[in-house]
Amino acid sequence: MQAILFLIVLFSGFVFIYLQQRKQNNPQYFVPLSAWGSTVLIVYLSIIELQNKSFYLGIILALLLLIYLNYKRDKTQLINGLLFNFWFGIFGIYLGFHFFQTRDLIVLGLFILLFMLVLALAIFGMISLIILLYWNSLIVLKREGRSLGNLLTLILAIALSMLLLYNAFIINKIPEYLVYLFAILPFSLGYFATVFLNFATISMIYQLNRPKLKQDFIIVLGAGLLNGEKVTPLLSRRIDTALNFYQRQKQKTGHPLKIIFSGGQGPDEKVSEAFAMKQYALEQGIPEEDLLLEDLSTSTQTNMAFSKQIIDSYNIDHVKVIFSSNNYHIFRAAIFARQNQLRADGIGAKTALYYLPNAFLREFIAIVAVHKKRHFLIIGIAGLFLLFMAVITFLIPQ
């Protein structure tokens, strides 16, 4: 009976929230639906725990609260991804233990859902991943052209193919000391795969930013121009996201908001990215007095640095700032904002699905570069250990 009541309350709430969101100009489904589902689930699990006089859910929620508070303190730490992944694992163990205690069907359903997710990742496997990467690389190269940035999924696919061939045909035919020596390659791939998982997790969580409609400035990060003078479809999505927020804040709160278009003029561009973005906004009917130009920057780092100078010139106490970019880019942009003492969260514009794998790989490489000393120190220590083992095995064969 409890399970049936839970499902009725859960789906009734889903329907109500969905209908309410549809009435809005900018409907947001994921966050309110997730919040409702989580709330109902916590209440349901709490009732079962009280009936069984246990308190394990309190420990799980306390751990999640600590991780969340650490995330709120600094959203740009990559370790937050590791902590959230650790919590997901603990929650899965809790569900399994809880089911064996209560035999509750809802708990079983959740446990099976998590298990199927892990199983799907396992079944997906190396071969399926390689096929997907080759397929994605062909689409990206066909639609976006040939460039080093667009070759990342192809390069990764080739690297994984070589590793697969090595494990299948070579590893059993070479001396043991060479196995140790070559082990640095799969170790490096495994290490960076783990770091990528943490990066992907925290990037997806960062997408859930919902800033209040009380901002003073919104920075739009520039990108390359079409024919050196017009905004590209990718850049227009960033601008549209900012303009949508601007219009909603203006309509609902009336709080004044300035839009800073940030982007300099590249060597192959006729005008600055900031100027082209401003012209696009003017065509959408945005008043010119609300548009500011930062046309000196050449990177995300300088986007934030020079935009902060403009913001500081207004001398606003407790200034509130957000920025707009494509969804795959906002986490790294937030890191640069914090490095420039600019407390600003990002709102992400949608990106074509086919482009996301390549884009996320590019962002990941840039994130690794930010902390390259730490990562390559770990790889270096592992490499020295494996080299030592190779020498020992060579000198003292078994």
From TrEMBL:
<dbReference type="InterPro" id="IPR003848">
    <property type="entry name" value="DUF218"/>
</dbReference>
<protein>
    <submittedName>
        <fullName>YdcF family protein</fullName>
    </submittedName>
</protein>
<feature type="transmembrane region" description="Helical">
    <location>
        <begin position="54"/>
        <end position="71"/>
    </location>
</feature>
<dbReference type="InterPro" id="IPR014729">
    <property type="entry name" value="Rossmann-like_a/b/a_fold"/>
</dbReference>
<keyword id="KW-0472">Membrane</keyword>
<keyword id="KW-0812">Transmembrane</keyword>
<feature type="domain" description="DUF218">
    <location>
        <begin position="216"/>
        <end position="365"/>
    </location>
</feature>
<feature type="transmembrane region" description="Helical">
    <location>
        <begin position="147"/>
        <end position="171"/>
    </location>
</feature>
<feature type="transmembrane region" description="Helical">
    <location>
        <begin position="29"/>
        <end position="48"/>
    </location>
</feature>
<dbReference type="InterPro" id="IPR051599">
    <property type="entry name" value="Cell_Envelope_Assoc"/>
</dbReference>
<feature type="transmembrane region" description="Helical">
    <location>
        <begin position="376"/>
        <end position="396"/>
    </location>
</feature>
<feature type="transmembrane region" description="Helical">
    <location>
        <begin position="6"/>
        <end position="22"/>
    </location>
</feature>
<keyword id="KW-1133">Transmembrane helix</keyword>
<feature type="transmembrane region" description="Helical">
    <location>
        <begin position="177"/>
        <end position="206"/>
    </location>
</feature>
<feature type="transmembrane region" description="Helical">
    <location>
        <begin position="106"/>
        <end position="135"/>
    </location>
</feature>
<dbReference type="Pfam" id="PF02698">
    <property type="entry name" value="DUF218"/>
</dbReference>
<feature type="transmembrane region" description="Helical">
    <location>
        <begin position="78"/>
        <end position="100"/>
    </location>
</feature>
